[in-house]
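Sorry, explain these tokens?

***
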Amino acid sequence: MPKDEATNMFISSLGSENRWIGLSDADSEDNWVFEDGQTLTSTGYSNWLQVQHEPNGGEACRDALGMESGHILDDDITASSRRGDDYKAQYARLKGNKNWAAKYNWIGQWLQVDLTNVKRVTGTMIQGSANVEAWVKYFTLQYGVDENSLVTYRHNDGIDKFFKGNTNKNTQVTNLLDHPVDARYVRFYPQLWFFWISMRVEILGCDRENFTVCPEPPPVPNTDTSGPECICPYWPGKNCTYKCITGGDVIMTCGNDATTPQLSSASQLPTAGAPNDTSQAKVKKERKTVLKKIFEDPSAFKSKLATEDNATQEEWNGWKTGKNMPQGYDSNVSPQTEEKFDVTSAVKILHVGPLSEENANLSVTVEYSMGWVDARLRGLSTGWEPVPASFMWAPPLAFDAAVRRAADVSKKRKSGGRGGSDHDISMWLHPSGILFHRLTRTLYLSCVPSMARYPLDQQECSFKLHGYSGLYFPVHRPKNASSPGPVTTDMTAVVSQFELTGLNVYSSVQQTDNTEAACHLLTGKYAYSADHCTHMRGCSHGNECAVCKTYFGSCQYESNDCNRSGLTQVSTLEVRLQFSRRLQSHVLVTFLPTTSVVMTSWLGFWLHPQEINGRVSLGISTLLSLIIKSSYGENPQTNLVRAYDVWMSGCLAMVMLALLETVLANFILSGGQVIIF
């Protein structure tokens, strides 16, 4: 460490190559301290350049690589899309008076910089929009030597790294890489943003002198006998020899700035640039298997959760206090790293209220069971462990316009204990990083009934749950015909004036601009015949009670393969309830009384024609009874001609004909000449 002229002259005599002199501001920016703790001012010596060199990607390797200066040409800056000519990728330069903005405000948009040759990349700087209040809050990075084989920058455990971005449009936010990488192409993937995806960027790093990179990830390396086995430049170690695909050996030296742990044998080494690929594939397979088992029979799984929940109060408190949360976890940041993000789903109808014909209102309580993967949470539990939903990322969802209001029906716990003042436990975490969430809502639907066939009418009411930014709602078929499957109904809680005769469920995707018809991932049609279940309201045990509370009827499924990009699509999980009006009360209140009145009016046919007073009184009485019944009956009012109106009109016609017969018979008997053809 040169703290006097003699030491400085000695180091200078060693040659012109750059050397680190033990000075760093790693602990505090711009606060330069020697390795022995002395500062610049305390040594009393300052005969050196303002920026000194640390080895392999230290302070000296944080130069701006040309976005702001224009050294990187416009043609070397590309993007997935642009909002217009004023938001081209070439405008994504730090401190510029314009900026890049994506055309689509979805996850999956990217901005790419071609450095023209391989550089050591050590960090990035970003800003938001130059003109409007818009910026990127979080982003991920991809990098590589070949544009067609970029890899995502990850933590040492293989989890994708999420970089913090801006909180306003102008502040320059610097992110230094935990371990520098060597790349020609650097691609930014916005993950969370304010108002619109808008960026101005700079890339930090330096030239890689005398450093050769194979055009493709190297095969199994031949390790130099003078040092331990390693993968350069991803693992620390000594010189390693690689057989480049283009021929010839390349000697690479791994620097101490690489922080990924060294492996012990060449046979265990993963492909360079993609650590833990094999284990990642196993994890993905495990997650797929777990999700399939859950949603083939979600009712059985929820029962299993209720009986096998062995989590302790201490474990719950660990989640509540953040002790069990991974470092840097942000519930506002999506774990989505691809264009399509699956949220496997199932639906249970918990309650159906009466349909108001006057106000077109219907209340339905629905429980959505959802499962998705958040890789950041992998390995944080030993089994299915309850976690506080308010601390976890959950997919952004929205109901359609038919839902006037959605109320959260989760009850707050009044006592202490697990759950505290939060809502009842509704989310569980699997060791593989799968989150299982129960979302329960009472939906107040706008459902305009068709009254043309009243009271013989059938109605259909629907509600839709929408997902955006590449969200998909895969729905699994039941594992066998006797399993409940993805949609069930508590038939004991149907308190409507209608009988629930069935429902249809649709999981679909459609372009946001509606240029193409919706593609149905799965269509399920359920036919119900369980009106007897309404008499079991409040039951708690017995096989018949269990069947009615998890009723699924007879089912038919149809699935399609919708191979489309998820960026510009809206995914929809739709449920259509099918009703048929219960006729028992109408038979007793309407059909039997009016039929009796009509038949009573026919009794006049058995009276002697000369009993004119009795026959007229009988006819007028029955006529008035029908008029009163049709005028003051408690029936839904509408401007349409209903089946009820046709029935009442027919009854009035029959009584009028009976009364007309009395008049004609009296006219004939009184001496009038009437010829009846």
Observations:
- Residues 48-57, 210-278, 412-423 have pLDDT under 50 and may be disordered.
- Residues 1-53 form one domain.
